[in-house]
Amino acid sequence: MLTRTMLVAVLASGATAHVAAFAKGMYCKGGNNASMDDPNNNVPAVPLNDLPFEDFWMQHDRGCDKVPPPNGEMLDLPA
User: Fold this and answer.
1) How far apart are CA 66 and CA 27, in angstroms?
2) By Cβ atoms counted within 10 A, which residue in 47, 50, 52, 65 is the most buried?
3) Is 22 left (phi over 0), alpha (psi -120 to 50) or beta?
4) What is the rounded CA–CA span in Å between residue 34 and residue 62?
């Protein structure tokens, strides 16, 4: 009989997805077009594999470094 943990592991092994946590203070939260807020964008969830550092950092390859969060919006990370 499979334990609950083993069952979850077996079911999760077939899942292949890219996930991003949309939070206050993140770049490209509303998409990579600064003139339009698109809450249904998938820009942060696109994989960053096989990119050189200059494209990987701040997701430069898709323009996220040019779309910062609004002034005053930041994520509080309690210690």
Assistant:
1) 8
2) 65
3) beta
4) 12
Instruction: Write out pLDDT tens, residues 23-56.
Output: 888 999 899 998 998 988 888 888 888 999 999 9
Cβ atoms of 64 and 34 within 8 Å: the answer is no
Euclidean distance between CA atoms 7 and 31, whole angstroms? 37
**DSSP state, residue 53:** H
Considering Cα of 38, then 39, then 40, then 44, what sign does the dihedral take? positive
Instruction: Show the tokens assigned to 60.
Output: 């430069």
Judge if pTM exceeds 0.90.
no
Q: Are the beta carbons of 59 and 41 closer than 8 angstroms? A: no
How many whole angstroms separate alpha carbon 69 and alpha carbon 34?
10
